[in-house]
Structure formats: structure tokens, C-alpha cells
């Protein structure tokens, strides 16, 4: 059986003091539970603290992005090798904020996914439609296009060590969660796309839901067949809120 993964994307929030307190709070709560997996995605500068505090604990950590180039004259960028130096297991690829604010194209996202796999990191491929796209009935075609860019590049084998996160843009940071039915419909569409290529990889693939997940709606979402966990933004910034989601999963 797949284990639920509860992952916290801290985005560009916090300070060193806050991060250390948050990690302490999570460590105190997580050690008591065993039913689900827990991971955090701090901003780059705090990966060092994450590694120092989480090593040997049940909590994994990852980064929010990487530059696909191995090394070189790329001022301001961070490579996969650097993330490995700080013990990262995961890295996000194609979060909607990267796609919209920083204009990362489907090809750019595929570059990142491919570089993460090549380095031995587990990429978390984020996909999802905007409100306008949903209202135009384009949810499936948008998600299909975003998945296809990576599938074409890395093949279905690339997803044997990867995670997909469905994050409808209209649900991110808005308090408007997709209903369990809405989320399940897209998750099952995503899984079916993989099933047609390799049913074993598709069956094992973890598909997370992201978009205003909190302690009150998590259990109902995670109960659905194809929702294998959550990628949590706002509610992952307070240990008790994030642990409530973790307990809902366990
Ligand atoms: P919120 O949980 O704040 O809606 O953010 C979701 C998200 O973007 C996680 O990557």
C-alpha cells in the first residue's frame, strides 16, 4: 500500500529563528507518529539547519527549485549537487509560482525534473490549471500538457522515483480547497495517463494534492483513492497546524 506523504512547502517565508522553532515543533510531534511520511521544503538558506536538525529523524527535506545546469557562471542559481551537499531527498519542479512569476515553461520544468533525477534527487512535479482554464473546461488538457513535457523527456521510468503534485492554481493560498470529488477526478485522470504506459509505476506513483489543505479538510481529501498526500503551503508554517494534517494522514 502507498504511504501518505505530507509535504510542507514553506515558499519564501520565515527567518532562521522561525525555521528552527518550527523544526523543533515538528520533531517533537512527528516522532510519536508512524503512519505517514513527512517532508519539509525550506528556502535554500535554511537547508543547512534542516539537515543539522532532521538528519536521522523521520522527517525528510527538500528544496523548492534547482538550476538544471551542473555548475558555472549562473549568478544567483543553485544546482542539484549543492542540494545533495545539504542532504536533500526531494526537489520541487514546476511549482505554479515558478511557472507564472518566473516564467518557467514546460520545457524548463522538464529540464529541472531531468537534472534532479540525474543527480539522484526525487523530483516533485507540480501541475495544475488556473481558474480561467478550469472555467473554459481546459483542466485536463492543461494537466496533460504539463505531464507530457516531462514524460516525453524522461519517459515513464522517470516517474519510478518521482512524485506528482496536483495544485490547482485557484486553490493555492486562497482558502478555496478543491472538493475531494474535484481533486479525485484530476488525480485519477493523472494516474490513468501513467497506467496506459506502465501500470506498476502508475500504481506506486504518489500523487499529492496541494491548495489550501488544512487540518479540517485533509482527512477527507486523503481518504480518496488517488490522493496520496498533500503539498501544503500556509498550514505548514505552524507546527501544530502541519501536525494536524499529518495526524489526519496517519
Ligand atoms: P497553500 O496550502 O497555502 O494553498 O499553498 C499550496 C502550495 O502552493 C504548496 O506548494
Note down, in words, how this protein is organized.
This protein has 250 residues and is of the alpha/beta class. The chain contains eleven helices and eight strands. It has helices at residues 16-30, 47-54, 80-85, 96-100, 106-119, 131-135, 139-154, 180-195, 199-204, 218-222, 239-249; strands spanning 5-9, 37-41, 59-63, 90-93, 122-127, 163-166, 206-210, 229-232. An eight-stranded parallel β-barrel has the order 1-2-3-4-5-6-7-8, surrounded by six helices. β1 (5-9), α1 and β2 (37-41) form a beta-alpha-beta unit. α1 (16-30) packs parallel to α11. Bound molecules: 1,3-dihydroxyacetonephosphate (13P). 1,3-dihydroxyacetonephosphate is lined by residues 9, 95, 167, 172-173, 210-213, 231-235.
Low-confidence stretches: none
Query: What hetero molecules are bound to the protein chains?
Result: 1,3-dihydroxyacetonephosphate
N- and C-termini, Cα separation: 13 Å
Helix-strand topology string: EHEHEHEHHEHHEHHEHEH
Strand order of the largest sheet: 1-2-3-4-5-6-7-8
Q: Structural class per helix/strand content?
A: alpha/beta
> How many DSSP helices?
11
Q: Roughly what percent helix? A: 40-55%
Q: Mind telling me the C-alpha Rg?
A: 17 Å
